[in-house]
Amino acid sequence: MKIGFGIWLALIVWVRAAGLDFPDTLKEIHAPADVKTVTTDFEFTNRSDKAVTVREYKPTCSCVAVTIKGGKLRYLPGESGVVRAEFDMGNFSGVVDKAVALWLDNDPAEKPSLTLTVRVHIPVLVSMEPKTLKWDLNGKVEPQIIRVTMNHSKPIRVTGVSSSTEAFKKELKTIEEGKTYELVVTPTDIATPGLGVLRIETDCDIAKHRIQQAFAVVRKPSPAEAAAKP
Amino acid sequence: MNSWGQLAVIAAVSLAAAGGTFLVKGPPSRVPSCDPAILKPGEICLSQIPAGAEVVWVDARQRSDWEKTGVAGSLLWNLDSNEDMSAFEEEAALRIAGNPRVIVYCGDENCGVSSQVAERIRALDLGAEVSVLRGGWRALKAAGRVKDSSPRP
Protein backbone atom coordinates (compact mmCIF):
# COMPACT_ATOMS: atom_id res chain seq x y z
CA MET A 1 0.00 0.00 0.00
CA LYS A 2 2.89 2.35 0.85
CA ILE A 3 4.44 1.88 -2.58
CA GLY A 4 1.16 2.61 -4.36
CA PHE A 5 0.65 5.72 -2.28
CA GLY A 6 4.21 6.79 -3.05
CA ILE A 7 3.63 6.42 -6.79
CA TRP A 8 0.44 8.47 -6.48
CA LEU A 9 2.26 11.25 -4.61
CA ALA A 10 5.08 11.21 -7.18
CA LEU A 11 2.55 11.64 -9.98
CA ILE A 12 1.05 14.67 -8.23
CA VAL A 13 4.51 16.27 -7.80
CA TRP A 14 5.38 15.46 -11.42
CA VAL A 15 2.30 17.28 -12.73
CA ARG A 16 2.75 20.30 -10.47
CA ALA A 17 6.41 20.74 -11.39
CA ALA A 18 5.49 21.45 -15.01
CA GLY A 19 6.41 24.99 -16.07
CA LEU A 20 8.70 27.33 -17.93
CA ASP A 21 11.19 29.56 -16.20
CA PHE A 22 11.30 33.18 -17.39
CA PRO A 23 14.18 35.24 -15.89
CA ASP A 24 12.10 38.39 -16.52
CA THR A 25 8.34 38.65 -16.69
CA LEU A 26 8.41 42.48 -16.54
CA LYS A 27 10.60 44.53 -18.86
CA GLU A 28 10.89 48.31 -18.67
CA ILE A 29 11.70 50.28 -21.80
CA HIS A 30 12.42 54.01 -22.08
CA ALA A 31 11.30 54.86 -25.60
CA PRO A 32 11.77 58.08 -27.60
CA ALA A 33 8.86 60.52 -27.91
CA ASP A 34 8.19 59.52 -31.52
CA VAL A 35 8.18 55.77 -30.86
CA LYS A 36 5.84 53.82 -33.12
CA THR A 37 6.55 50.23 -32.13
CA VAL A 38 8.38 48.49 -29.32
CA THR A 39 9.73 44.95 -29.69
CA THR A 40 10.73 42.88 -26.69
CA ASP A 41 12.00 39.33 -26.27
CA PHE A 42 11.20 37.21 -23.23
CA GLU A 43 13.62 34.28 -22.99
CA PHE A 44 12.61 31.13 -21.16
CA THR A 45 13.85 27.63 -20.32
CA ASN A 46 11.98 24.51 -19.42
CA ARG A 47 13.58 23.67 -16.09
CA SER A 48 11.01 21.02 -15.20
CA ASP A 49 11.45 17.31 -15.76
CA LYS A 50 8.75 16.95 -18.40
CA ALA A 51 7.83 18.43 -21.73
CA VAL A 52 5.81 21.66 -21.56
CA THR A 53 3.49 22.90 -24.27
CA VAL A 54 2.54 26.53 -24.74
CA ARG A 55 -1.13 26.00 -25.41
CA GLU A 56 -2.14 29.59 -26.03
CA TYR A 57 -0.72 33.10 -25.86
CA LYS A 58 -2.88 36.15 -25.96
CA PRO A 59 -2.14 39.87 -25.64
CA THR A 60 -4.47 42.13 -23.64
CA CYS A 61 -5.05 44.41 -26.61
CA SER A 62 -5.17 44.15 -30.37
CA CYS A 63 -2.07 46.34 -30.60
CA VAL A 64 0.35 43.50 -29.90
CA ALA A 65 1.76 40.90 -32.27
CA VAL A 66 3.11 37.90 -30.38
CA THR A 67 5.29 35.17 -31.84
CA ILE A 68 7.27 32.32 -30.37
CA LYS A 69 10.66 31.89 -32.02
CA GLY A 70 10.49 29.27 -34.75
CA GLY A 71 6.82 28.63 -34.08
CA LYS A 72 7.85 25.93 -31.60
CA LEU A 73 5.27 25.31 -28.89
CA ARG A 74 6.49 22.11 -27.18
CA TYR A 75 9.65 22.28 -25.05
CA LEU A 76 11.49 19.26 -23.67
CA PRO A 77 13.28 19.49 -20.30
CA GLY A 78 16.26 21.85 -20.64
CA GLU A 79 15.12 23.40 -23.92
CA SER A 80 14.91 27.16 -24.27
CA GLY A 81 12.80 29.50 -26.34
CA VAL A 82 11.85 33.12 -26.88
CA VAL A 83 8.49 34.88 -26.81
CA ARG A 84 8.68 38.00 -28.98
CA ALA A 85 6.09 40.73 -28.53
CA GLU A 86 5.82 43.69 -30.87
CA PHE A 87 3.68 46.51 -29.52
CA ASP A 88 2.15 49.27 -31.61
CA MET A 89 2.43 52.34 -29.38
CA GLY A 90 -0.09 54.47 -31.29
CA ASN A 91 -0.62 57.89 -29.69
CA PHE A 92 0.49 56.93 -26.21
CA SER A 93 2.69 59.04 -24.02
CA GLY A 94 3.58 58.68 -20.36
CA VAL A 95 3.77 55.20 -18.86
CA VAL A 96 1.85 52.33 -20.39
CA ASP A 97 1.91 48.61 -19.59
CA LYS A 98 1.29 46.07 -22.33
CA ALA A 99 0.82 42.46 -21.36
CA VAL A 100 0.76 39.00 -22.91
CA ALA A 101 -0.84 36.07 -21.08
CA LEU A 102 0.52 32.54 -21.54
CA TRP A 103 -1.43 29.33 -21.00
CA LEU A 104 0.60 26.15 -20.58
CA ASP A 105 -0.61 22.57 -20.88
CA ASN A 106 -3.73 22.22 -18.73
CA ASP A 107 -4.14 25.79 -17.48
CA PRO A 108 -7.81 26.65 -16.99
CA ALA A 109 -9.13 29.28 -19.42
CA GLU A 110 -9.56 31.84 -16.65
CA LYS A 111 -6.08 31.41 -15.18
CA PRO A 112 -3.01 31.53 -17.42
CA SER A 113 0.27 30.28 -15.96
CA LEU A 114 1.90 33.65 -16.32
CA THR A 115 1.67 37.15 -17.70
CA LEU A 116 4.56 38.89 -19.45
CA THR A 117 4.51 42.67 -19.17
CA VAL A 118 6.35 45.42 -21.00
CA ARG A 119 6.28 48.80 -19.25
CA VAL A 120 7.03 51.53 -21.77
CA HIS A 121 8.00 55.04 -20.65
CA ILE A 122 7.31 57.63 -23.37
CA PRO A 123 8.19 61.29 -22.73
CA VAL A 124 5.28 63.70 -22.36
CA LEU A 125 6.39 66.61 -24.56
CA VAL A 126 3.41 68.88 -23.89
CA SER A 127 1.86 68.72 -20.44
CA MET A 128 -1.21 70.55 -19.15
CA GLU A 129 -1.65 70.73 -15.39
CA PRO A 130 -4.13 70.40 -13.88
CA LYS A 131 -6.16 68.38 -16.34
CA THR A 132 -9.45 69.67 -14.97
CA LEU A 133 -10.43 73.03 -13.52
CA LYS A 134 -13.46 72.87 -11.22
CA TRP A 135 -15.91 75.48 -10.00
CA ASP A 136 -18.72 74.84 -7.55
CA LEU A 137 -22.21 75.50 -8.83
CA ASN A 138 -23.30 78.98 -7.62
CA GLY A 139 -19.80 79.50 -6.19
CA LYS A 140 -17.32 82.33 -6.79
CA VAL A 141 -16.48 83.28 -10.37
CA GLU A 142 -12.70 83.34 -10.09
CA PRO A 143 -10.20 82.68 -12.88
CA GLN A 144 -8.14 79.51 -12.64
CA ILE A 145 -4.94 78.56 -14.44
CA ILE A 146 -3.78 75.57 -16.45
CA ARG A 147 0.00 75.51 -16.74
CA VAL A 148 1.31 74.34 -20.12
CA THR A 149 4.89 73.05 -20.01
CA MET A 150 7.01 71.88 -22.93
CA ASN A 151 9.52 69.11 -22.25
CA HIS A 152 11.34 68.82 -25.55
CA SER A 153 14.91 69.40 -26.71
CA LYS A 154 13.62 72.19 -28.97
CA PRO A 155 11.01 74.91 -28.35
CA ILE A 156 7.32 74.06 -28.81
CA ARG A 157 5.02 77.03 -29.34
CA VAL A 158 1.28 77.18 -28.72
CA THR A 159 -0.32 78.10 -32.05
CA GLY A 160 -3.97 78.03 -31.05
CA VAL A 161 -6.45 77.58 -28.23
CA SER A 162 -10.05 76.47 -28.65
CA SER A 163 -12.96 75.66 -26.39
CA SER A 164 -15.95 73.41 -27.01
CA THR A 165 -18.27 75.98 -25.44
CA GLU A 166 -18.75 79.70 -24.85
CA ALA A 167 -19.41 78.96 -21.19
CA PHE A 168 -15.72 79.51 -20.37
CA LYS A 169 -13.53 82.50 -21.24
CA LYS A 170 -9.92 81.63 -22.00
CA GLU A 171 -6.76 83.68 -22.25
CA LEU A 172 -3.27 82.38 -23.11
CA LYS A 173 -0.29 83.99 -21.39
CA THR A 174 3.26 83.33 -22.55
CA ILE A 175 5.59 82.86 -19.61
CA GLU A 176 8.61 81.72 -21.66
CA GLU A 177 8.20 81.41 -25.42
CA GLY A 178 8.50 77.80 -26.52
CA LYS A 179 8.73 76.54 -22.93
CA THR A 180 5.96 77.63 -20.55
CA TYR A 181 2.48 79.09 -20.95
CA GLU A 182 -0.53 79.70 -18.74
CA LEU A 183 -4.10 79.24 -19.86
CA VAL A 184 -6.36 81.44 -17.72
CA VAL A 185 -9.95 80.17 -17.68
CA THR A 186 -13.04 81.84 -16.22
CA PRO A 187 -16.62 80.53 -16.34
CA THR A 188 -19.20 82.93 -17.77
CA ASP A 189 -22.12 81.21 -16.04
CA ILE A 190 -21.67 79.74 -12.57
CA ALA A 191 -25.36 78.97 -12.05
CA THR A 192 -25.59 76.21 -14.68
CA PRO A 193 -23.66 72.91 -14.62
CA GLY A 194 -21.43 72.60 -17.66
CA LEU A 195 -18.25 71.15 -19.05
CA GLY A 196 -15.84 72.65 -21.54
CA VAL A 197 -13.08 70.94 -23.48
CA LEU A 198 -10.06 73.23 -23.83
CA ARG A 199 -7.66 72.31 -26.62
CA ILE A 200 -4.27 73.73 -27.35
CA GLU A 201 -2.58 73.27 -30.67
CA THR A 202 1.20 73.46 -30.89
CA ASP A 203 3.91 73.38 -33.54
CA CYS A 204 5.45 70.22 -32.05
CA ASP A 205 7.31 68.33 -34.78
CA ILE A 206 5.92 64.99 -33.56
CA ALA A 207 2.29 64.76 -34.64
CA LYS A 208 0.98 62.66 -31.76
CA HIS A 209 2.05 65.28 -29.20
CA ARG A 210 0.79 68.29 -31.17
CA ILE A 211 -2.73 68.67 -29.74
CA GLN A 212 -3.51 68.39 -26.04
CA GLN A 213 -6.69 68.92 -24.07
CA ALA A 214 -7.88 69.76 -20.59
CA PHE A 215 -11.31 70.31 -19.05
CA ALA A 216 -13.23 73.00 -17.22
CA VAL A 217 -16.31 72.06 -15.26
CA VAL A 218 -19.01 73.81 -13.24
CA ARG A 219 -20.72 71.23 -11.08
CA LYS A 220 -22.30 70.48 -7.75
CA PRO A 221 -19.45 69.33 -5.49
CA SER A 222 -19.52 65.67 -4.47
CA PRO A 223 -20.55 64.97 -0.85
CA ALA A 224 -16.91 64.15 -0.03
CA GLU A 225 -15.69 67.45 -1.48
CA ALA A 226 -18.44 69.42 0.25
CA ALA A 227 -17.58 67.78 3.58
CA ALA A 228 -13.89 68.58 3.12
CA LYS A 229 -14.55 72.31 2.74
CA PRO A 230 -14.38 74.49 5.90
CA MET B 1 -1.92 -7.16 -3.97
CA ASN B 2 1.10 -5.68 -5.77
CA SER B 3 1.87 -1.97 -5.91
CA TRP B 4 0.15 -1.44 -9.28
CA GLY B 5 -2.98 -3.05 -7.95
CA GLN B 6 -2.85 -0.78 -4.90
CA LEU B 7 -2.44 2.25 -7.18
CA ALA B 8 -5.43 1.14 -9.23
CA VAL B 9 -7.52 0.86 -6.05
CA ILE B 10 -6.50 4.37 -4.90
CA ALA B 11 -7.25 5.80 -8.36
CA ALA B 12 -10.63 4.05 -8.48
CA VAL B 13 -11.58 5.33 -5.01
CA SER B 14 -10.49 8.88 -5.93
CA LEU B 15 -12.43 8.83 -9.20
CA ALA B 16 -15.54 7.48 -7.47
CA ALA B 17 -15.32 10.25 -4.84
CA ALA B 18 -14.83 12.92 -7.51
CA GLY B 19 -17.72 11.57 -9.58
CA GLY B 20 -19.97 11.44 -6.54
CA THR B 21 -19.12 15.05 -5.67
CA PHE B 22 -19.86 16.10 -9.24
CA LEU B 23 -23.24 14.35 -9.19
CA VAL B 24 -24.25 15.77 -5.81
CA LYS B 25 -22.79 19.30 -5.97
CA GLY B 26 -22.62 19.82 -9.73
CA PRO B 27 -19.70 21.09 -11.80
CA PRO B 28 -17.07 23.31 -10.19
CA SER B 29 -18.17 26.91 -9.73
CA ARG B 30 -16.68 29.35 -12.23
CA VAL B 31 -18.06 32.34 -10.39
CA PRO B 32 -15.08 34.51 -9.44
CA SER B 33 -14.79 34.92 -5.73
CA CYS B 34 -14.09 38.30 -4.18
CA ASP B 35 -13.03 38.81 -0.59
CA PRO B 36 -13.13 42.50 0.43
CA ALA B 37 -10.44 41.77 3.01
CA ILE B 38 -7.80 40.99 0.39
CA LEU B 39 -8.56 43.61 -2.24
CA LYS B 40 -5.71 45.69 -3.64
CA PRO B 41 -5.96 49.48 -3.13
CA GLY B 42 -8.49 50.93 -5.57
CA GLU B 43 -10.31 47.63 -6.14
CA ILE B 44 -13.91 46.84 -5.27
CA CYS B 45 -16.06 43.70 -5.15
CA LEU B 46 -19.34 43.67 -7.04
CA SER B 47 -21.09 42.85 -3.75
CA GLN B 48 -19.83 46.16 -2.26
CA ILE B 49 -21.72 48.26 -4.80
CA PRO B 50 -25.11 49.15 -3.36
CA ALA B 51 -28.08 48.26 -5.52
CA GLY B 52 -29.32 51.31 -7.38
CA ALA B 53 -26.07 53.23 -6.85
CA GLU B 54 -25.30 55.76 -9.57
CA VAL B 55 -22.29 54.31 -11.30
CA VAL B 56 -20.51 55.17 -14.52
CA TRP B 57 -19.25 51.82 -15.83
CA VAL B 58 -16.10 51.90 -17.94
CA ASP B 59 -15.30 48.89 -20.12
CA ALA B 60 -11.55 48.44 -20.65
CA ARG B 61 -11.85 45.49 -23.02
CA GLN B 62 -11.49 45.58 -26.77
CA ARG B 63 -14.11 47.53 -28.70
CA SER B 64 -15.66 44.41 -30.25
CA ASP B 65 -16.16 42.84 -26.80
CA TRP B 66 -17.68 46.04 -25.42
CA GLU B 67 -20.08 46.27 -28.35
CA LYS B 68 -21.17 42.65 -27.96
CA THR B 69 -21.30 42.16 -24.20
CA GLY B 70 -20.65 45.43 -22.38
CA VAL B 71 -22.71 46.67 -19.44
CA ALA B 72 -25.65 48.67 -20.73
CA GLY B 73 -24.78 52.37 -20.76
CA SER B 74 -21.07 51.75 -20.18
CA LEU B 75 -18.26 53.80 -21.65
CA LEU B 76 -15.42 52.30 -23.65
CA TRP B 77 -11.85 53.17 -22.62
CA ASN B 78 -9.14 50.69 -23.48
CA LEU B 79 -5.46 51.00 -24.32
CA ASP B 80 -5.60 49.84 -27.93
CA SER B 81 -3.26 51.91 -30.04
CA ASN B 82 -5.81 52.24 -32.82
CA GLU B 83 -8.26 54.00 -30.51
CA ASP B 84 -8.43 57.76 -29.97
CA MET B 85 -7.37 58.43 -26.38
CA SER B 86 -8.47 62.08 -26.60
CA ALA B 87 -11.98 60.97 -27.55
CA PHE B 88 -12.03 58.55 -24.59
CA GLU B 89 -10.97 61.38 -22.27
CA GLU B 90 -13.61 63.73 -23.60
CA GLU B 91 -16.44 61.20 -23.43
CA ALA B 92 -15.38 60.17 -19.93
CA ALA B 93 -15.23 63.79 -18.74
CA LEU B 94 -18.72 64.45 -20.09
CA ARG B 95 -20.16 61.42 -18.32
CA ILE B 96 -18.15 61.49 -15.12
CA ALA B 97 -18.48 65.19 -14.24
CA GLY B 98 -21.33 65.22 -11.76
CA ASN B 99 -21.22 61.48 -11.00
CA PRO B 100 -19.66 60.41 -7.73
CA ARG B 101 -18.62 56.88 -8.66
CA VAL B 102 -16.78 55.28 -11.59
CA ILE B 103 -16.04 51.56 -11.85
CA VAL B 104 -13.69 50.14 -14.46
CA TYR B 105 -13.75 46.51 -15.55
CA CYS B 106 -11.84 44.43 -18.05
CA GLY B 107 -12.09 40.75 -18.98
CA ASP B 108 -11.06 39.21 -15.68
CA GLU B 109 -8.56 39.67 -12.87
CA ASN B 110 -5.67 38.71 -15.19
CA CYS B 111 -6.29 41.53 -17.65
CA GLY B 112 -4.42 44.40 -15.97
CA VAL B 113 -5.76 47.07 -18.32
CA SER B 114 -8.53 48.24 -15.98
CA SER B 115 -6.10 49.46 -13.32
CA GLN B 116 -4.22 51.51 -15.93
CA VAL B 117 -7.45 52.98 -17.28
CA ALA B 118 -8.58 53.77 -13.72
CA GLU B 119 -5.29 55.60 -13.16
CA ARG B 120 -5.84 57.67 -16.30
CA ILE B 121 -9.37 58.57 -15.20
CA ARG B 122 -8.10 59.55 -11.73
CA ALA B 123 -5.49 61.76 -13.44
CA LEU B 124 -8.34 63.74 -15.02
CA ASP B 125 -9.18 64.82 -11.45
CA LEU B 126 -12.92 65.08 -12.07
CA GLY B 127 -13.70 64.50 -8.40
CA ALA B 128 -15.22 61.03 -8.79
CA GLU B 129 -14.24 57.96 -6.80
CA VAL B 130 -12.67 55.58 -9.33
CA SER B 131 -12.45 51.84 -8.58
CA VAL B 132 -11.45 48.69 -10.43
CA LEU B 133 -13.92 45.81 -10.32
CA ARG B 134 -12.28 42.66 -8.95
CA GLY B 135 -13.10 39.77 -11.26
CA GLY B 136 -13.95 42.13 -14.11
CA TRP B 137 -16.47 41.22 -16.75
CA ARG B 138 -16.62 37.59 -15.54
CA ALA B 139 -17.98 38.78 -12.19
CA LEU B 140 -20.56 40.96 -13.94
CA LYS B 141 -21.60 38.09 -16.19
CA ALA B 142 -21.98 35.72 -13.25
CA ALA B 143 -24.25 38.32 -11.62
CA GLY B 144 -26.33 38.71 -14.79
CA ARG B 145 -25.30 42.35 -15.24
CA VAL B 146 -24.21 42.17 -18.89
CA LYS B 147 -26.06 41.54 -22.11
CA ASP B 148 -27.40 38.00 -22.61
CA SER B 149 -26.59 36.81 -19.09
CA SER B 150 -28.59 35.83 -16.05
CA PRO B 151 -27.51 35.76 -12.39
CA ARG B 152 -25.81 32.59 -11.20
CA PRO B 153 -25.99 31.42 -7.59
Task: List the topology elements.
The complex is a heterodimer of chains A (about 230) and B (about 150).
Chain A: H1 2-16, E1 26-30, E2 37-45, E3 52-59, E4 64-68, E5 74-75, E6 80-88, E7 94-104, E8 114-122, E9 126-129, E10 132-136, E11 144-150, E12 158-163, E13 168-176, E14 180-187, E15 194-202, H2 207-210, E16 211-219, H3 223-228
Parallel strand pairs in A: 1-8, 10-16
Antiparallel strand pairs in A: 2-6, 3-5, 3-7, 4-6, 7-8, 9-11, 11-14, 12-15, 13-14, 15-16
Chain B: H1 3-25, E1 43-44, E2 56-59, H2 63-69, E3 75-76, H3 85-96, E4 101-105, H4 113-123, E5 129-133, H5 136-142
Parallel strand pairs in B: 1-5, 2-3, 2-4, 4-5
Notes on the protein architecture:
- The complex is a heterodimer of chains A (230) and B (153).
- Chain A has three helices and 16 strands.
- Chain A is mainly beta and 230 residues long.
- In chain A, the strands form four sheets. A five-stranded mixed beta sheet of chain A has the order 1-8-7-3-5, with no helix packed on it.
- Chain A is elongated.
- The termini of chain A are far apart.
- Chain B is an alpha/beta fold and 153 residues long.
- Helix content of chain B is 39%, strand content 12%.
- Chain B contains five helices and five strands; from the N terminus they run αββαβαβαβα.
- In chain B, strands 1-5-4-2-3 form a five-stranded parallel beta sheet, with helices on both faces.
- The N and C termini of chain B lie far apart (46 Å).
- The interface between A and B is large, with 44 and 43 residues.
Key structural traits:
heterodimer; A: 230 residues; mainly beta; four-stranded antiparallel β-sheet; 3 helices; 16 strands; elongated; B: 153 residues; alpha/beta
Short description:
Chain A contains three helices and 16 strands. With 230 residues, chain A is mainly beta.
